[in-house]
Amino acid sequence: MSDPVSGLLGAVLLRTILVGAVLVVMRFLAEGIYQPALALGGVLAVFAYMRITDAALLE
Questions:
Q1: Which stretches in the chain have pLDDT values below 50?
Q2: Where along the chain do its domains lie?
Q3: CB-based burial of residue 25 (10 Å sphere; 0-12 exposed, 13-18 middle, 19+ buried)?
Q4: Residues whose CB falls within 8 Å of the CB of residue 44, separated by 6 or more in sequence, listed in order
Q5: What does the CA dihedral 58, 44, 21, 28 come to, rounded to 10 degrees?
Q6: What 3-state DSSP class applies to 2?
Q7: What is the pLDDT of residue 1?
Q8: What are the distances in angstroms from CA 33 to CA 3, 18, 28, 51, 54?
Q9: Three-class SS of residue 52?
Q10: Which residue windows are transmembrane per the record (predicted)?
């Protein structure tokens, strides 16, 4: 059993990283830098797919 504080801090860190990555993609798109935006957006899409399918499989 993990410590509840560690679980909470891990969730906060994960959300912070995801929000930061989305903001970087949005900034790249706004500035017209498409190749890194597509690469990072693709990684985010794969990560979202893995989280959704993993949650569905664990039910």
A1: none
A2: 4-58
A3: buried
A4: 18, 21, 22, 25
A5: -170
A6: coil
A7: 54
A8: 42, 20, 5, 27, 32
A9: helix
A10: 6-26, 33-52
State the pLDDT at residue 56: 73
Specify the 3-state DSSP secondary structure of 59.
coil
Contact yes or no for 28/36 (Cβ under 8 A): yes
Rama region for 12: left / alpha / beta (φ>0; ψ in -120 to 50; rest): alpha
List, as own/partner pairs, every contact residues 39-47 make where C-beta atoms lie below 8 angstroms and the sequence separation is at least 24, other chains included.
44/18, 47/18
Q: Are 43 and 18 in contact (CB under 8 A)?
A: no
Q: Which residue has the tokens 């410590």?
A: 3
Counting beta carbons within 10 angstroms of the beta carbon of residue 5, is it exposed (0 to 12), middle (13 to 18) or buried (19 or more)? Answer: exposed
